Amino acid sequence: FWVPKLVGALYKREPDSNVIVVDWLVRAQQHYPVSAAYTKLVGKDVAMFIDWVEEKFNYPLNNVHLLGYSLGAHAAGIAGSLTKKKVNRITGLDPAGPTFEYADTPIRLSPDDADFVDVLHTYTRGSPDRSIGIQKPVGHIDIYPNGGGFQPGCNLGEALRLIAGKGLSDVDQLVKCSHERSIHLFIDSLLYEEKPSMAYRCNTKEAFEKGLCLSCRKSRCNNLGYKVNRVRTKRNSKMYLKTRAQ
To answer: What's the pTM?
Structure first.
């Protein structure tokens, strides 16, 4: 389970921080449309909690960084849009696609939900709205490791072999592998500070794969994950990089 790993990595990197985990597992594991609808309620509850902390303890919201994975990324976005003052940062880890790809900004993660919004997209295969992860950029900086499609080490051949051997029960493991890669890439960025992964701004993943975008001029490259440089351009910035299987 990835939550303790992420919490441990956050404390290792920021020993004096307060890490608060929102446990909405029961709501998150309902039939998908029901869970998707619950993001509004969860976001509202989180916003109320943040406002309470700010008022009760005079806590500055420029110290607040929300992290959300899949549906949780949209819950974080909704929370950010409802707080009385803006939170500092939201990181979306492969925000969920179905029902959100074409949704209006109040009910999904968007750049105006925090002073800075950065997003990792690791499973954006298939037609929009059928894609497990949202395909369109929804932050100030949107990074698509390996083009945002299937992630190395989560290979399709292996999946077909598993299906042949064990039936369809392992398909969800394959989906999980690419979808959850966003979390593990972020954890790596916390733990391996001296070896940041670099992403490059590019119009298309095809152009990136041809090696046409490997420039750092004019903020064209950025660190993946925790130490991202907070570059805010007028339009969303789509960035790409290649990662290994591990």
So the answer is: 0.91
